Amino acid sequence: MIPIKSEKDLQMLKRSGRILSGVMRKVEKIVRPGITTLDIDRLSEELILKENALPAFKGYKGFPATACVSINEEIVHGIPSPRVILEGDIVSIDLGVNFEGYFSDMAVTLPAGKVNENERKLIEVTRKSLETGIKQARPGNYLSDISHSIQSFVEEHGFSVVRNFVGHGIGVALHEEPEIPNFGAAHLGPLLKSGMVLAIEPMVNTGSWECRIARNGWTAVTKDNRPSAHFEHTVAVTENGPVILTE
């Protein structure tokens, strides 16, 4: 069953999402060559706690940090460390907030300094694929209409969609029903209804969609070691269309 949120739930999720988007905007400003992924994690935690919220990821199934920070060929679940970000890296940051028991989740991919044209295109296509998927999050559409629109957009631009990791429902838990693949045929799966809240998150690879898990047991890496990008928003399905809660 996909949970349907009450008006109170939606208002609380808006507050959670507003906190998270504010934190992310501040974190984005420090991303540049010379900082470490641990710097990003520490600032993220400090800012979340200042808002009287909690990091949603820290301790979740044993994850050791507040932020997932994934660089270049790392797709998702990068563990922050003293690793220094270099000129030309692309940096994916995934953050979650628990505000009074209500969860929000978002991700962005940013260039560190100057990146090459293909990586700029990868970032832009991934960001726009998220926008394309969000437009389908309206009552009467099928869940897979989101999936299909993302895959179609990405593949039209010569990239591939990760299949091992998917989006998810969100609300009073970080992960709720349903799973939201970023690939598949249209007009399948459950019908979308007002009050559903979805974390839509395309993960897009330059080359093959295949991935492997690094030795740390967490970080997903492209199998061909080519760059990957990741964007995510928490979105409410409403009678007036999709509402981005993390904007």
Report on the architecture of this protein:
By secondary structure, the chain is α+β, with helices and mostly antiparallel strands. The chain has a single domain, classed as Alpha-Beta Complex (Creatine Amidinohydrolase). The protein contains four helices and 15 strands. The strands form four sheets. The protein has a five-stranded antiparallel β-sheet with strand order 8-7-9-14-15. Strands 1, 2, 4 and 5 form a four-stranded antiparallel β-sheet that branches. A three-stranded antiparallel β-sheet has the order 3-12-11, with no helix packed on it. The longest helix has 22 residues, at 7-28. The protein is globular and about 45 Å long.
Question: How many β strands by DSSP?
Answer: 15
CATH class: Alpha Beta
Structural class: alpha+beta
Give average pLDDT, whole number. 98
Distance between the termini: 27 Å
Strand order of the largest sheet: 8-7-9-14-15
Oligomer: single chain
Rg calculated over all Cα atoms? 17 Å
- Give the biggest sheet: 5 strands, antiparallel
Proportion of beta-strand residues: 25-35%
Task: Report the CATH superfamily.
Answer: Creatinase/methionine aminopeptidase superfamily
- Number of domains as seen in the coordinates: 1
> Which spans of ≥5 residues are poorly predicted at pLDDT below 50?
none
CATH fold call: Creatine Amidinohydrolase
- The shape is globular
Measured as a percent range, the helix fraction is 25-40%
Task: Please provide a brief summary of the model.
With 247 residues, the protein is α+β, with helices and mostly antiparallel strands. It has four helices and 15 strands. A hairpin with a 2-residue loop joins strand 4 and strand 5 (102-111).
